[in-house]
Write a structure and sequence with these properties.
Elements (H helix, E strand, L loop, with lengths): L8 E5 L18 H14 L4 E6 L28 E5 L10 H7 L4 E7 L1 H14 L3 E10 L3 E2 L5 E2 L1 H15 L2 E3 L1 H7 L1
Parallel strand pairs: 1-2, 1-4, 2-3, 4-5, 5-8
Antiparallel strand pairs: 6-7
Length: 186
């Protein structure tokens, strides 16, 4: 069973209203938000650091475009005043946000990453975290993604995209865990 430092940070990525837009298509892991909620409750109960990441898109047709409701956090994941919030314009939560400095200033070296989408913002952030030397875990059942069409027109099911992204991360960047193991070790 994994164990986590008392200051291990829970990093919640892009759980905003817009991620539920029907145009994004079929997704996997329908209970991911429940798992994120359980982890968030456990982190809050123990007074551990929680970091919320919000995507602020530069694209006019994005579900995360500023000035519309899709940009807001989902009600279940509204940050508390004591919790950090970082806004990003690209998939990687470390890119031009100050997140790395914020973590170092607080002596945080361990990250538990959850959120959306597995093969985009979660993967990009976990890769950078691993490259920067953070002890990184991605919680498989607390992340999800959508069906993805490749450049040849083939549609890959969300579960396959999710599994492949996590498999790639497990090679060099992060431990891949299930929420039950994280909760047991926290």
């Amino acid at each position: 069973m994994p164990t986590f430092a008392s200051n291990a940070a829970l990093l919640i990525i892009d759980l905003q209203v817009g991620i539920n837009h029907p145009r994004l298509g079929p997704r996997n892991n329908p209970e991911a938000e429940l798992r994120v909620g359980e982890l968030l409750a456990a982190w809050r109960m123990k007074g551990r650091p929680v970091v919320h990441v919000r995507h602020i898109s530069r694209e006019p047709d994005s579900v995360f475009r500023p000035g519309q409701s899709g940009c807001e956090f989902q009600p279940a994941f509204t940050p508390l005043a004591s919790e950090a919030v970082f806004e990003k314009n690209v998939p990687d939560a470390f890119c031009h946000t100050g997140l790395e400095r914020w973590l170092h200033v607080r002596g945080i070296s361990e990250l538990v990453i959850v959120g959306v989408t597995t093969n985009n913002s979660v993967e990009s952030t976990a890769r950078t975290a691993g490259n920067l030397g953070f002890d990184t875990a991605v919680v498989a059942d607390a992340c999800y993604t959508f069906d993805l069409q490749d450049r040849n027109g083939r549609v890959w099911p969300a579960e396959d995209v999710h599994t492949l992204a996590l498999t790639t991360l497990a090679v060099d960047y992060a431990r891949i865990l299930e929420s039950a193991a994280v909760l047991a070790g926290s």
